[in-house]
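Q: Entry one of two.
A:
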Amino acid sequence: LTMSTQPAHQRPLQQDWANREYIEVITGSIKKITDFLNSFDTSCRSRLASLNQKLTELERRVEYIEARV
């Protein structure tokens, strides 16, 4: 049955289900994006912490070498 051949009282119900399915798809997509962004944030923070640690070590080495010269 198409929308035009359905009884008038069924059209709002059919539209409601279509809207609910659409909202469910959008909600699922938003959740996937949120999960990805949270994972990306965690990964970036970890990498930045590692780089910060390496940079701090290099700065200490430079200070040590400068002190010896």
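Q: Entry two of two.
A:
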Amino acid sequence: MFVLDDGWFGHRDSDRSSLGDWFTYDKKFPNGLEHLAKYVHGQGMKFGLWFEPEKISLDSELYRHHHDYLMHVPGREPTPSRRQFVLDLGIKEVCDNIYQQIKRVLDTVKIDYIKWDMNRHLTDIYEADLPADQQGEVYHRYVLGLYDLMEKLVSDYPDILFEACSLVVADVLTLEWLITCLRFGRAMILCC
């Protein structure tokens, strides 16, 4: 298997940009990912692709058009970690946007495997649309949104193997995703 890791999307020339922009970086792949995937398959290998769908870079098209997708506490600077920030997956519109972006890639490129990464801890756990007495629900809503996103992808793309790698909420989240994958007759690899 050939797995194309970080850097294939948006305009990602460093770790400071493009998380949240799940479209092919034309400068790096002028013939598109479809061309690379066909070449890899032609060599008798499977083709895999890296995603980090839970995160966002401030230097991204997604942030420029939807700064409200960033999980943050109003009136405070958002907390960066590894030069990235957390998407508020507790908001359905955010999950739908990420799903549609990934779907566009999966519908145009023959992908056999997805490495789903999560390279930072969660911070700024707050949702501006919720009243103060419901702020304790934000993390739970985030996880439920993440489960829905994962389950929809696994269900809609049953021939793709999804690997959960470096997930922060590993114990509960990957177990739930494993159960989700098995429910659809899927295998799941867990990275340690």
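A: Comment on entry two: DSSP finds five helices and seven strands in the chain. The domain at 2-190 is CATH 3.20.20.70 (TIM Barrel).
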